[in-house]
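Example: Proline--tRNA ligase.
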Amino acid sequence: MRLTRYFLPVLKENPSEAQIVSHRLMLRAGMIRQQAAGIYSWLPLGFRVLRRIEQIVHEEQVRAGHIPMLMPTLQPADLWRESGRYDDYGEEMLRIRDRHKRDLLYGPTNEEMITDIFRAHVGSYKDLPLTLYHIQWKFRDEIRPRFGVMRGREFLMKDGYNFDIDQDAAIHAYNRHMVSYLRTYERMGLTAIPMRAASGPIGGDNTHEFLVLAETGESEVFYDSAILDLKLGNRVVDFDSREECEAIVREWTAPYARTDETHDEALFNAVPEARRKTSRGIEVGQIFYFGTKYSDPMKAVVVNDKGERVPVHMGSHGIGVSRLLGAIIEASHDDRGIIWPEGVTPFPVGIVNLKQGDIATDGACEALYNTLRAKGLEPLYDDRDERAGAKFATMDLIGLPWRITVGPRGLASGLVELTSRRTGQSEEMTPEAAVSRLVQIYENH
Ligand SMILES: Nc1ncnc2c1ncn2[C@@H]1O[C@H](COP(=O)(O)OP(=O)(O)OP(=O)(O)O)[C@@H](O)[C@H]1O
Ligand SMILES: [Mg+2]
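Written out as structure tokens, the predicted fold is:
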């Protein structure tokens, strides 16, 4: 992408309405525009990151054996009357009436709808286990939408639902989700700690939240710092193996980690003092096992291997896809702007031409641009007729992890400069060497 042909409306001034750094940077980097309280347009740069995050979520769900689908944003109220939640959900639910005076709602979550789909099409234990998920816009009429996409009213969520024959099988689904979530967040360059949590209106008592540590987080968290040393990395996991998933869950749930809702002072004090940490965290996901909470009232039953009709055991699992952009920026920025982890960056590399209009620098930039694209590394080429300082400031603000700087002085000896946004370190090398370095860096992303 050439910057002169792109749509990147960066802001020079700090927007006064933004209270936290991620919101400020998303506005300044031209990623989002607020259309109403808690409702945003995703401008091209923000949209690219959103799609990257979605892609990682999809890949890790499919790797765990879960099946993608898509349910609508609008749902009939009658389904929610069956579960009893139409009245319980309260003012957070956006209620809508169509021209035929039928009650609809903009879905805040999808337990009822997925249970309805299941009961219509599945009747036997032979069709289990089954986990279906989608990534779809949700609406919750939050009383205080704030912090940009972090607490929106309309937001993008991955929500998945498992259907299993009994509690043991459903607990395996729970564990499988925890493992797949750990890998999902790691690929985004995040440390998200699973913490035992209290369950909200979705119900049930077996639940963990995933929290990213950040001072601006809305939850107070207490944890044993030993948990920060755990990494899944490229471990090969057999998601069908109950033992393997359970072992990983045990590893991650052994160190103390809880939010204020479930915090237990006595247990916490048993952690060695040097490792006892109190902080704040951003909730980027949550998993639940809730048994037959929906299958009972909604009569989602299957015939088991003894020929008996039993309610199916369920759980639900959510990832805050749009919130993740804010969480990643909170965890990865400096005073000049965003620092995208390679896994989610909108463009893998930026090219800065220090002397636009000069035949040699233009030619070298074009050649780099084409070679990188051919390698599948779509660069953002700053081909504006601007001062070097302004180009560097834009690159730093939008946070591409790597920058190639092309100027007449280096080119005289056949060299360009490769700079890391994170460390600020630059290295001179030939354009070919810069390309192969980038290919190597992105091999695992
Ligand atoms: N208003 C929102 N804006 C953006 N993301 C949200 C919002 N509400 C929830 N999410 C994301 O969706 C995920 C799954 O939804 P869940 O039902 O667990 O939310 P929740 O526990 O009600 O969230 P919170 O406690 O932050 O209000 C959350 O972990 C969070 O990352
Ligand atoms: Mg939650």
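The longest helix spans residues 167-187.
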